[in-house]
Specification:
Blueprint (H helix, E strand, L loop, with lengths): L9 H4 L5 H14 L2 H16 L5 H12 L9 H9 L2 E7 L7 H19 L6 E4 L7 H8 L6 H23 L3 E4 L4 H18 L6 E6 L5 H15 L3 E6 L4 H10 L10 H17 L4 E6 L3 H13 L9 E6 L4 H9 L4 E7 L2 H17 L3 H19 L1
Parallel strand pairs: 1-8, 2-3, 3-4, 4-5, 5-6, 6-7, 7-8
Helix pairs in contact: 2-16, 3-15, 4-15, 6-8, 7-9, 8-9, 10-12, 12-13
């Protein structure tokens, strides 16, 4: 392991936060650390929004401003520019979820294409991103993945989904942007994987442009990665993978129990961590053919990747390796990595306050369920508050 504990440096981690922003962050994580409060707050917020109560202003100045860049891409510019001054890039993520109509999918496509043009003009934005279900119905992905016979109408609908994928992937290549395609629930993922593999074969001819996402809490993903690598080698194209641990664990386990099949989720956190680290090592062993975007808030996994890079003589700023964290979280990882010359990008969600609420609620719930995450944030914020008091 790397002996220098770089993630303890709170001065670098929170350099962009004013005293007021530091206090707000501390208050928010303190609230999030109280599980019953999160449940009550989530229910009350959902009710208030559905009942059209005037709560958007309150949400905006608290949880929204901490975890989101703004309501639109221009609103995000101050955040993007500030972070880039410290060497941290941005991935603008239009975090609107749960849409169902063709008009909404076409609108999401237009938004993603617009963001890609916006990104092309800015060095601070080397990536674009989208969710598969932003471009098509989850039920349709599920039906395609299970190889059920589609009706003629569904065939036409699926062709539209494929066309949206192709349009965005082509633009990524034309604009020389990397494109991260998110992973979602396992029961829709087979269809998404097949589609992304098709896009990789078409557009990753010279380097990784299209990146799929592997949720390493799934015990089958390491084998999937190796099989995809063998396929890409046989056909002569490059792979790009964003590694994450995963965000739908409770939903996955509940559905597996309900439908009486083996859960795709690893038995415990240790198995998930081992799986993530094994996949990262595998990619670094095959870096000439596979690029890595390590989406992780885990310090041990980050140190492991840094150590592997050092052992293999890979430069800190090698363009085939990126680290990524969510905006509003793990600044101690992002900014300290950037300070050491590593490639780092923050996922910066944006969108109308109402539409982004499902994302924000998931963030709050995840923070309460990930052991140690909120406590770590609080201890680092507390350390920085004390440091500033002593300096004054």
């Amino acid at each position: 392991m790397i002996t220098e504990p770089i993630f303890e440096n709170t001065q670098i981690a929170f350099a962009l936060k004013s005293d007021a922003e530091l206090e707000r962050a501390y208050f928010l994580f303190k609230m999030i650390s109280i599980q019953p409060l999160v449940k009550i707050g989530t229910t009350a917020t959902n009710f208030a929004i559905k009942a059209n109560l005037p709560v958007e202003g309150l949400i905006r100045v608290t949880v929204f401003n901490h975890f989101c860049g703004g309501v639109n891409e221009y609103d995000c510019l101050p955040v993007i520019d500030k972070m880039y001054q410290k060497g941290v890039s941005s991935v603008l993520d239009y975090s609107v979820e749960g849409k169902e109509s063709e008009a909404e999918f076409d609108s999401a496509l237009i938004t993603v294409l617009h963001i890609m043009d916006f990104a092309q003009e800015r060095k601070a934005m080397p990536f674009a991103v989208f969710k598969p279900t932003g471009f098509g119905r989850l039920k349709l992905f599920e039906k395609v993945g299970s190889e059920d016979v589609l009706t003629n109408e569904e065939l036409r609908e699926w062709q539209k989904v494929e066309n949206r994928f192709d349009t965005v992937c082509k633009k990524a290549k034309d604009n020389d942007l990397a494109l991260l395609i998110d992973a979602e629930e396992s029961w829709m993922q087979d269809a998404a994987d097949t589609l992304v593999t098709k896009m990789m074969e078409k557009y990753n001819t010279k380097k990784a442009v299209v990146f799929n996402t592997l949720q390493m809490y799934r015990h089958d993903r390491l084998d999937f990665l190796k099989a995809q690598h063998a396929l890409a080698k046989s056909k002569g194209y490059y792979l790009g993978y964003k590694l994450v641990r995963g965000a739908y664990m409770e939903k996955e386990n509940e559905r597996a129990q309900e439908h009486n099949y083996e859960s795709p989720i690893c038995k415990n956190k240790f198995a998930t961590d081992s799986n993530f680290d094994a996949a990262a090592k595998y990619i670094l062993d095959n870096l000439d053919e596979v690029s890595l975007f390590a989406g992780t808030h885990n310090e041990d996994s980050t140190y492991l990747i840094m150590e592997q890079m050092k052992m293999k003589g890979i430069a800190n700023n090698d363009p085939r390796i990126w680290f990524g964290q969510l905006y509003g979280m793990s600044d101690h990882i992002s900014f300290n990595l950037a300070d050491k010359g590593y490639n780092v990008a923050k996922y910066v969600p944006f969108g109308p306050v109402k539409d982004v609420m499902p994302y924000l609620i998931r963030r709050a719930e995840e923070n309460t369920s990930v052991a140690g995450q909120t406590g770590r944030e609080l201890s680092l914020l507390s350390k920085e508050k004390k440091r500033r008091k002593l300096d004054n």
